């Protein structure tokens, strides 16, 4: 810790305090989280959920853990520094946020959550205090309660701040999923529009009561599992028909209200995933590049061996018996181009071959002009040789355009996957992204999605 100078305490939580600090060597401003609990071994530190989860995360909308320090049995986390948290911006705000600002923030958060869930984790403690903001950039922070999706239940009953806690957790369910994060996002999104919490319950019972008053009481059709959870703890839902969210969020558009309604569904299976939320019409003006359409790293090709060079030359000569032997100039051109391609291990582009072919034709024309002119006949040897030479160059160019050196596969335009539309989700299986049809959003009108690719 001697490399850092603590400047000011900027936050204090249940598990530790956060300080603004500066790196004495580089001058970089960082945020240092000092844990209140004592840690007497390094293994105990490394096995913390926050450390295990953040070590696997690398996303622009997830706060970056730069360093972990254990000194005198005190544990320090060194994070990148962000200026504010979302709660501070909401609390100090005098006028409402514009829908464009809310759309920008939520779009980034859903991208971060999609990455988090695809990596096998869910946050479990999403709230405005844990969302850090610097200018127009927002990041998800505080992974102290993060849990692996594939971990074995039962899960902890208390997971998040009550106002953003999903109803299945309020009913003491030990089997919940990443959909608890989607419920929290619906509550946060509504709060950004009104600057007031959507479900400000004073207790677990009062929280469920306020949820029922807004979205209506659950039924067997809307959430049969919830009724079973309630009966298991001898709880009876208050009967309420709810209200229209548009009346509670008058500044929100129809698409925004529709997304909040979907996110705050009783049944977790009816809430959209983060990937599906990104395809909602509310974000139709945002430019989202799905992982399946993102550019892949270029493949490096190794030069072929000497034996492969000879085989390729012989194969090329066998394929063009009519053009290559009849023209010394063409044969020399092809040999030099082939050797250059083989030595570099990179396929020559068609335009380069055509360019050199045109130069070769010019040299043939200039050579013919220097000789004494004789009117050629229709079957003159010069006309035949010149036609053969030109045909050989064009044939060679076509062969080179379709030939790949080193891989023996034709290089062409890779087929692009179809554009993603609203109602299509992407999910992570075996480390990759695949598209599959899911439930359709019904925003009331259709949009064309702007998807790269």
From TrEMBL:
Gene Ontology molecular-function annotations: ATP binding; cyclin-dependent protein serine/threonine kinase activity; MAP kinase activity
| Amino acid composition bias (Polar residues), ranges on this chain | 313-329
Entry EC number(s): 2.7.11.22
Q: Which CDD domains match?
A: STKc_MAK_like
The organism's place on the tree of life at top rank:
Eukaryota
Instruction: Summarize where ATP binds, as residue positions.
Output: 34
Q: Would the keyword Membrane be found if you checked this record's keyword annotation? A: no
Q: Name one Pfam family in it.
A: Pkinase
Which segment of the chain is annotated as a signal peptide?
Answer: none
Top-level class of the enzyme under EC nomenclature:
transferase
Q: Which Gene3D superfamilies match?
A: Phosphorylase Kinase, domain 1 (3.30.200.20), Transferase(Phosphotransferase) domain 1 (1.10.510.10)
Q: According to the UniProt record, where is the region Disordered?
A: 297-330, 356-382, 407-430
Can you give the residue ranges of the Protein kinase domain?
4-283
Keyword flag Secreted: no
Q: Which reaction does it catalyse?
A: L-seryl-[protein] + ATP = O-phospho-L-seryl-[protein] + ADP + H(+); L-threonyl-[protein] + ATP = O-phospho-L-threonyl-[protein] + ADP + H(+)
Keywords on record:
ATP-binding, Kinase, Nucleotide-binding, Phosphoprotein, Serine/threonine-protein kinase, Transferase
Q: Which family does it belong to?
A: Belongs to the protein kinase superfamily. CMGC Ser/Thr protein kinase family. MAP kinase subfamily. Belongs to the protein kinase superfamily. CMGC Ser/Thr protein kinase family. CDC2/CDKX subfamily.
Protein's name in the database: cyclin-dependent kinase
Organism whose genome encodes this protein: Hevea brasiliensis (Para rubber tree)
């Amino acid at each position: 810790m001697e490399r850092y100078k603590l400047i000011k305490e900027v936050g204090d939580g249940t598990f530790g305090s956060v300080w603004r600090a500066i790196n004495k060597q580089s001058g970089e401003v960082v945020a240092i989280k000092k844990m209140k609990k004592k840690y007497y071994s390094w293994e105990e530190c490394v096995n913390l959920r926050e450390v295990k989860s953040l070590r696997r995360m690398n996303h622009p909308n997830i706060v970056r853990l730069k360093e972990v320090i254990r000194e005198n049995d005190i544990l320090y986390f060194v994070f990148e520094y962000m200026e504010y948290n979302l709660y501070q911006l909401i609390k100090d705000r005098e006028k409402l946020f514009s829908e464009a600002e809310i759309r920008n923030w939520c779009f980034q958060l859903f991208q971060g959550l999609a990455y988090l869930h695809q990596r096998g984790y869910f946050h479990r403690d999403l709230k405005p205090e844990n969302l850090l903001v610097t200018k127009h950039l927002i990041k998800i922070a505080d992974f102290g309660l993060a849990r692996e999706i594939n971990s074995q239940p039962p899960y902890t009953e208390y997971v998040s701040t009550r106002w953003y806690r999903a109803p299945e957790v309020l009913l003491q369910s030990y089997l919940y999923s990443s959909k608890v994060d989607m419920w929290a996002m619906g509550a946060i999104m509504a709060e950004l529009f009104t600057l007031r919490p959507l479900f400000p319950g004073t207790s677990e019972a009062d929280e469920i009561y306020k949820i029922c008053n807004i979205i209506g009481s659950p039924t067997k059709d809307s959430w049969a599992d919830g009724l079973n959870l309630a009966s298991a703890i001898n709880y009876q839902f208050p009967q309420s028909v709810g209200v229209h969210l548009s009346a509670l969020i008058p500044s929100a558009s129809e698409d925004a209200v529709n997304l909040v309604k979907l996110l705050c569904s009783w049944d977790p299976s009816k809430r959209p995933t983060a990937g599906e939320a990104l395809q909602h019409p509310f974000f139709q003006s945002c430019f989202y590049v799905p992982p399946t359409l993102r550019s892949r790293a270029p493949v490096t090709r190794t030069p072929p061996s000497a034996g492969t060079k000879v085989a390729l030359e012989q194969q090329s000569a066998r394929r063009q018996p009519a053009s290559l032997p009849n023209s010394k100039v063409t044969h020399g051109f092809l040999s030099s181009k082939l050797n250059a391609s083989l030595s570099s291990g990179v396929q020559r582009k068609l335009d380069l071959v055509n360019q050199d072919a045109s130069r070769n034709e010019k040299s043939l024309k200039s050579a013919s002009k220097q000789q004494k002119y004789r009117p050629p006949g229709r079957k003159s040897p010069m006309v035949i040789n010149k036609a053969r030479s030109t045909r050989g160059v064009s044939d060679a160019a076509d062969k080179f355009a379709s030939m790949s050196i080193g891989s023996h596969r034709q290089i062409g335009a890779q087929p692009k996957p179809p554009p993603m539309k609203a109602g299509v989700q992407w999910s992570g299986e075996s480390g990759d992204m695949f598209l599959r049809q899911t439930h359709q959003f019904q925003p009331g009108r259709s949009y064309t999605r702007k998807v790269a690719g």
